[in-house]
Please model this.
Amino acid sequence: MRIHIFHETVYRYEAPLTRAIQVLRVTPRHHEGQYVVNWRIEISEDCKLDAQEDAFGDIMHTFSVHEPLDALSVVVAGEVETQDTHGIVRNAVERFPPSLFLRETPLTQPDAAIQDFARHLAEGNGGTDKLDLLHALLGELHREVTYDTDPTHAATTAAEAFALRRGVCQDLAHIFIATARTLDIPARYVGGYFRRSDGVTAQEAGHAWVEAFVPGLGWVGFDPAHAICTTDAHVRVAIGLDYLGAAPVRGARVGGGEEKLSVAVNVTQAAQQIQS
Amino acid sequence: MLSRTADNLYWVSRYVERAEYLARILEVTMRLTSLPIGYVGATNEWESAIATAGCSKAFYARHSEANEANVMEFLTFAPQNPSSISNCIELARTNARAVRTAITSEMWDVINGAWLELERFGNAAGSREEFMRFLRWVQETSLRFDGSAFRTMLRNDMYWFSRLGLNIERADNTARILDKKYHLLLPADARIGGPLDYYQWAAILRSVSALTSYHWVYREGLKPWLIADLLILNPQMPRSLASCYDNLVRHCDSIATAYGRQGPAQRKARAIRTKLQNSSMEEIFQRGLHEFIEEFIADNNQLGSAITRQYLM
Amino acid sequence: MAFAFDEMLGHDEQVRGTYTALNTWLREQSPDLLEQRCQEAELLFRRIGITFAVYGEADSTERLIPFDVIPRILSSAEWDILRRGLEQRVRAINLYLNDIYGRRDILRAGVLPEEMVFQNPLFRPEMNGQRVPHDVYVHIAGIDIVRVDEKTFYVLEDNARTPSGVSYMLENREIMLRLFPDLFSRYRVAPVEKYPDELLATLQSVAPATASAEPTVVLLTPGIYNSAYFEHSFLADKLGIELVEGRDLVVKNGVVHMRTTEGLKRVDVIYRRVDDEFLDPLAFRPDTELGVPGLMAAYLAGQVTLANAVGTGVADDKAIYSYMPEIVQFYLGEEPILNNVPTWRCREPSHLSHVLDRLPELVVKVVNGSGGYGMLVGPAASKAEIAEFRARIKASPKNYIAQPTLSLSTCPTFVDRGVAPRHIDLRPFVLTGRDRIRIAPGGLTRVALQNGSLVVNSSQGGGTKDTWVLDR
Model:
């Protein structure tokens, strides 16, 4: 599937901004199920955009502005060619052995409730098949936790979201990761985009899901918000131990007063490509 | 020098100067209110003190009317008043501590000693006598701080930034007194020379410690237009606007020379001084004393922001 | 517990050679005079403003660390062994860190279990695959050493993050020189005053390739409320460098600058006394206000040197500590000159049962604790405390290590009623630059002032002494 992505973030400041700096992780890379046809980043100000590869192999860009500004916009756009690999992620950039992804982070630290949840899953599963266990987790999580954009925010932890039984794709991913790691399965956070099959193209934000390591198969994508394994509708952009490691934007600013943020995300299937 | 260091030096001086100013206002107000009512009129001097201190908004958020007890408390020890004397000393000390190696040990001793001693005065409302002792002590502290800075600091950008803070604050303080009392200084006022005004005029001069200077400069009895002249245009009087701006221009220029670059702060300081130099009292009274002072306060604030933008942030 | 080895009297109450002159001198002094000198010392410390903040004490944010006027003396032969051992250890630590964040040979060789590194909270994945300027991770190390007898020194702890205390080493000497000029005429004491110059030379030597010929070095402090703020401002002063806070630094076009009254000025080397997690809100804890947004990106792009590097905690963690002899052997192919204290790792079942059997005689430490917090000193603990620790160890054994209760050496110390032996340790400071390793002779001797106490940490009532290394 050829997927076209347009993602615009506009910041408007109540008072002129003194300076700002942002670290972006918004650039997808190739792997077996994904080929990046073209990709670009446009920033409304003239500035130096430095590219680096981070420790996880994500492409990271940094830019800073030092002039008084009323508004700043960042546009990320491009086309990606995807294939359905039944969720299995092969030949992606791997900088760590899977066991690294058993680390706890503040956002994914399991509390007693998540530990119980994990234990209950393991008991129900009985067997030792990790893939079955992960599918059980995917299904159970979908039943237990309701998708809801209201009660959580970027800094909500897995434990907090699980206690609420509500959250967005980020929260679901964190709970999934916390549970999987409790079950001794390496798991990691994935930030990216999702093309909806219902024809709706305008979205409020990018998407997030999880990859878990299954011996024999390798890394497998699980999308707890949709209760499916990843498909050719998923465009994988960045991985990390949790949201903070894969966040599309981490920024800081001085001055500017109140900030008004507007985000437009458009994910469409590009016109039928010609297959040879 | 780090911008933050310059900022700290600038504010240490501003806060010490502000503490002294508050102490002067309170002392003068205490003196005025101890006169029989026939000598000063029925005005509420405590209300006036709050206004001159620039704290009306914060004050009336807590109190419905101004009286000796609540104004004294509010301007000296009230923790809720960010610009009470004790908070000024605390803030001066915090700023000094952050640049402890940039100021001399003599300056540190004064400000740290004052901060430690502050506790001795406690925050209990005391007798008038105790208050008076406290207010004297605040003024002495400021004198000692200023003196130790003058005698011990290297004459480099550190010194100049601390002087900028002091003079911006001082000019603002003198202008605020004029702003609240300008009506007493208007020559056309029908009540000229009334017995009531004499004590008010003396009080104005006392609040900038210029009563004796007045007599040395003018060698005649208190005349409101001469008082205005002394406080605004006379460059000999250390707290006059003209004198403050002589200093501000000089120190801004020293910084520009040392750094080999000048900017908005230098231009603004010179423009304000030129305006003061080219004014006469007749002209000021004609155009309106009140308007003149208001404009000056705004100009002075703009210079403060220009210094901040150019050097301190 | 056996009688401790005394630095002056050994095991057999015979004055050791290095202490003969001191012993004579001590006998000549009246207790009144010593008492008077102590008071003078305290006054001097107060005047200089050497203070120390203690966590959890709201009312006293500034306090003096007690100073003991009787020096601790090391012979040149003793120091020679320590110096070579320290140099070896620090070289191994730097090779280990380069490897852990690079090729990971030591994991492949199975010397260190993978999870000890990857599950270690002090391991910084962000540093993976990145090269630090000149391959130096630990520019400043403080290695804690204890002595148990004439011949045996143990390394108690490697401090490879932001070791503090060197200001006391320097000031203690200054004060001793002022108070006891006579005593110095009886000994040839190696000076320590070159340390600031050597630290600056070390820091300048590791400037990134993009820096100018005269690199700009700054000291980054968390600010005036930090417990070691005095030391930060003291060192910045001695080195003649700016003492900056995070808000003084700005990353512009990938380069770190400081905000000065003359505009932005490039910074090449940051001697940072801010912990990893607080360095950059865009890379670590997003809520930090102590750091510099974008610092890590500039660092990883090779535009600035951080000293110490990010992620060095994975070398001084107490669990990794127990592998240090293997680490020295693996990277240098040498036998360690300085030994570790024998250590049981509770993560290993056989060690765990041994530890649980003997809790009352052991010292138990949390692997990621510091400053003596969360520690059990078995022989001094109550039954309840031991029971509590037993439960904690059982709940998460991998968080604990245990060691025999060492009888740390004692040194004559001036206390309430004259001179008495008190337990001491030693923290020498090891500087690693691009060119070489520099070690100031001696270091900071810490002393447990309570009779019988083994806890020398200044946060828990320990004091300090001047440390003398005798010239040949």
About this structure: Chain B is about 75% helix and 0% strand.
